[in-house]
Amino acid sequence: MNKPIQYGLAGMVVSKLFDIKIPLIIDEKVLNDSDAVIATLAVDQDRALPRIYMERELFYGLKRGEPMARMTVFHELGHFVHGDLPSVFSSKEYDEDRINNAVSGDVLKAELDADAFAAAYLGTEMVIDGLVALKRLIVDEYGYDELPIQEIEQRIKRLEKTRTA
Engineering a disulfide at 101: which of 17, 30, 42, 106 sits with its beta carbon 3.0 to 4.6 angstroms away? Predict the structure, then answer.
């Protein structure tokens, strides 16, 4: 019964914060199709039925309690709680907005709000640790250019300011 999950439903998030169960789905094809790498919150075209798609290793990191995995899932839940519901079909436009903001040294409010949600439940230190690990992963494993790195660095700086405030 402890067979590794290759793809499909891996679990459900249930919370008093929202009245529905949010599926955790391992499906790297959806991630690739949506320009996401590790995880994404997605809804269908009617902006209903939210779910979090993730890569398999992120799911196992979540089971192990790794900061990056926990931060990522809570960050995606933060998007849901704040009503930031990108569909799989519109993520390219959202990604372009993120890149344009990174070029100017800024971060989309939706990303900062999702980080704040994660920090409220996990603590600022864990979210910062998770973002540092995410930054290392996207450089080492995925070889991304500097724009996603700049965005993550800005997100870390914003969280550090709240820690010292």
Answer: 106
For 28, 128, 163, 165, the CA distances from 7, given in Å and listed in that order, are 8, 29, 37, 42
Contact by Cβ (8 Å): 80, 22: yes
Q: 71 or 1, which is more confident?
A: 71
The pLDDT score that the predictor gives to residue 34 is 66
Taking the model in full, what pTM does it have? 0.86
The CA distance from 80 to 26, in Å, is: 18
Residues with Cβ < 8 Å from 120, sequence gap 6 or more?
A: none
**Secondary element (H or E) of residue 8:** strand 8-13
> CA–CA separation, 152 vs 26, rounded Å?
24
H-helix or E-strand spanning residue 158: helix 146-164
Q: Which amino acid is it at 22?
A: I
